[in-house]
Amino acid sequence: MSGKGNAPVIIKRKKVVAGDGHHGGAWKVAYADFVTAMMAFFLLMWLLNATTEKQRKGIADFFNPTIPVNRISGGGDGSFGGDSVFTEETLAQNGTGAPEGQSASNQEGSGASSGASDAQSYTEVKEMLSAFSGESMAADSALRHIVTKVTDEGLIIELHDLEDEPLFAKGSDVPEPVLELLVDMMAEVFSIVTNKVALNGFMASQPVVVARNPVWNLSSQRADRLRVMLEEAAFPASRIQRVSGYADRRPVVSNPVSFRNNRVELILLRSDISAAQN
């Protein structure tokens, strides 16, 4: 009995190792949120770089409520008149926010309408320019001088020098025969639309430093000569919005003295720009 009473007590401790602790899901949620945020950020950066100002405004308008419900009163003729705050009559006549909401809606509608009209006009102009191809060898040769592009300002039709065929006599604003043919084409094409027109002149830089740099005066003189030629071709003078000379400040190629920088631009202005400048 005494031997059994003195027997050692053995305590067995079991060590539990949590081997799958690193498989928890909390960090995955945080990482997924981070990746989503980064993707949204890079998508935003891409949209800012790949869209025009007009397109960005359209995207912004998409996320703005068309009807300012939070600033419109209950509507109706007096208290509990029964009209809904969403009816067109209520928005137009009642509520503190109604006139602003109506004005914004009208502006969006008119802006979209003018934008669609301008796009149609630009398409018609480019199609008519393309139709000159094949009419004659002179027309085909003249079309080599034309580059078109659509910008936020409107449709730009650029007439530029070729290495073997300039638009103006060297160092002057005297037009060459090819420019006279091009201006006749432009006057005919512009007659199918009603947009206002802006005229710009550009020059290549001088290869040497001169005491009096002529490019400022010459670019303005060539743009103005283009205006005179258009008017002589029966183009309405009232449609010419402005005439500008930019000297050699906006080269289109990396070499500033290249003949390619000698050019004039005819811009069919967007309708909203023309209205704002009037």
From TrEMBL:
Q: What is this protein called?
A: Chemotaxis protein LafU
Q: Which organism is it from?
A: Aquimixticola soesokkakensis
- Region described as Disordered: 93-118
Q: Does the keyword Membrane apply?
A: yes
Q: Which Gene3D superfamilies match?
A: OmpA-like domain
Supply the alphabetized keyword list.
Answer: Membrane, Transmembrane, Transmembrane helix
- Domain of life, per UniProt, equals Bacteria
Motility protein B-like N-terminal domain residues are 13-65
Sequence intervals crossing the membrane = 29-48
Comp. bias regions, Low complexity: 101-118
